[in-house]
Amino acid sequence: MPILSTFAHSDLPSAFSWQAIAYAALIRVTVFHAGTDYAIDGVGNVLTATPYRGQGYGRQVVERVNDRLDTSDADAAALFCAPDLEPFYAAAGWSPCPGGTRVDSHLYSELRMMRMLSPRARAAAKSLLTTTMDVGWAW
Ligand SMILES: CC(C)(COP(=O)(O)OP(=O)(O)OC[C@H]1O[C@@H](n2cnc3c(N)ncnc32)[C@H](O)[C@@H]1OP(=O)(O)O)[C@@H](O)C(=O)NCCC(=O)NCCS
To answer: Domain tally for the chain?
Structure first.
């Protein structure tokens, strides 16, 4: 019976005595956008092991990530995905960012998707979602 667990990075077991079926990582970054620094929870490494795909584990992991974000003190959350995964994340309340992303000054091919978390991010949602965002690296 799969169990959903959440670990702080420092608590992540160095040796697993169990098999990870699906996984995601959260990392805090600061992004300067349109004159303002935003605390962003970056979501990355969303993965379901091949034999277990299509059984709802990825959805459960994204829901657990959303639960964590709901109590986060970050301004917004962002992830990068292949364009065909937009419906997967949109179904969990994530919004696509058609303005695209520059990573280290180069236009990035992955779709950025975001969730607004703080009042000031919600107030700036149009800019955060629709204008090009510059990031130093894509988590
Ligand atoms: C993307 C991924 C995590 C989905 O995990 P999963 O456990 O198979 O997802 P689920 O079974 O919870 O699927 C949830 C829904 O998303 C859809 N979906 C899953 N993968 C999809 C894909 N690659 N493209 C389009 N839709 C997809 C499913 O069809 C399902 O829709 P439904 O509820 O209408 O049937 C998994 O395919 C994966 O690990 N891919 C390789 C790594 C990757 O691309 N990660 C994403 C990085 S942003």
So the answer is: 1
Task: Please give the residue range of the domain that contains residue 24.
Answer: 16-135
Helix (H, G, I), strand (E, B) or coil at 25: strand
Q: Is 58 in the pocket of ligand 1 (CB under 6 A)?
A: yes
Residue 70 inside a domain? The answer is: yes
Residue 52 covered by a domain: yes
44 Cα–ligand 1 center, Å: 14
In a domain, 90, yes or no: yes
β strands within 2-103, DSSP E? 22-33, 36-48, 76-81, 95-96, 101-103
Mean pLDDT by 10 residues, the chain (139 residues): 86 81 96 98 97 97 97 98 98 97 96 98 98 97
Say if ligand 1 is within 6 A of residue 88 CB: yes
